[in-house]
Amino acid sequence: MSSNGQEERQKKSLSQGQLIWRRFKRHKLGMIGTVVVIILATISIGAPFFSPYDYTEPDFGQAYTPPQRVRIRDAEGNFTRPFVYGLTQEYDEVTWERVYVEDKDEKYPIRFFTRSWEYSVLGLFDTDLHFFGVDEGATIYLVGTDHIGRDLLSRIIYGSRVSLFIGGVGALFSATLGSFMGGVSGYFSGKVDMVVQRFVELLQLFPQLPLMMALSAAIPTTWPPLGVFIGVVFVLALVQWTWLAREVRGKVLSYREEDFVLATKTAGANDLYVIVFHIIPNCLSHIIVVLTLTIPNLILAESALSFLGLGIQPPMVSWGVLLSNATNLQTVGENPWIMLPGVFILVTILALNFMGDGLRDAADPYS
User: Fold this and answer.
1) If you average pLDDT over every residue of the chain, what do you get?
2) Which structural domains are found in the chain, ordered by start?
3) Cβ(272)–Cβ(212) below 8 Å
4) pTM of the full structure
5) E strand or H helix at 299
């Protein structure tokens, strides 16, 4: 039997989900993107455990400390466990700027599963266990500190919680609203379709960023940070749902005359039941693909709004809030590490897009 024939027999013996998974595994960039997304999600969920310092705790004496270099060779050139040297503050005699110099006499090994600042785990119990750290009295700033001495790595890790949560929850809300509106539009067609599609076109008529800025500016400044956070999620989802509604409408138009829909209606099911429990589930693979491609758009939108001061407000922290500290060119030139949140945004967007491309190719395993 030829290899093509054997492959066809294997396809027939596999379920739809198994076929999608087998094809997705062949998409190397999609798999790499999925692994990166899983790692980022794990770190954001366990942010207190992975953060070596309390992200809100300032240390004014360590303002704009540059990233400390992790070394695996000692002064004699022998391999040893990872360590960092201590830092000594000095002043440039010409510019009178504060500079940090490594003190080769102070050597601090990096320890894993160390005890440091205390935090709560899901409100159930308190612990002070952290993934890595150094002995008390030493410092380990792998990506430097900000203008008031807060550890930038810890703030980036905590910022991932907000940015990824907004992307995920906003995309989920957007997918729910877009799927329902697209399903209603395509199923009923006629006047209902015309009204829904004209409303969709009206929202898509406005440039997205100015529209989001206008809606975000309408959020009262007296709201607490959590209220602003919920408002930003709602604003972003409100702008993004229209694109999925168009996609789902096209799918529903092709499904509404299928035999399974007619059989369900003949059995006495109402229109809402047919849309929610029969038509939308058949569009699920397509919705998931669009969902994964919507999340990076929402992360970018939140970062842009927070960068402009219209999104997440301190003391909450997101990648966009961290980038807002990089608006001064002189500060960026002297302390370039404060731009690192942008690198995390870039990596996350690429990973999500690679994963979305892989899912899009695998969604139709028979093509």
Assistant:
1) 85
2) 59-150 (no CATH), 154-362 (1.10.3720.10)
3) no
4) 0.85
5) helix 284-307
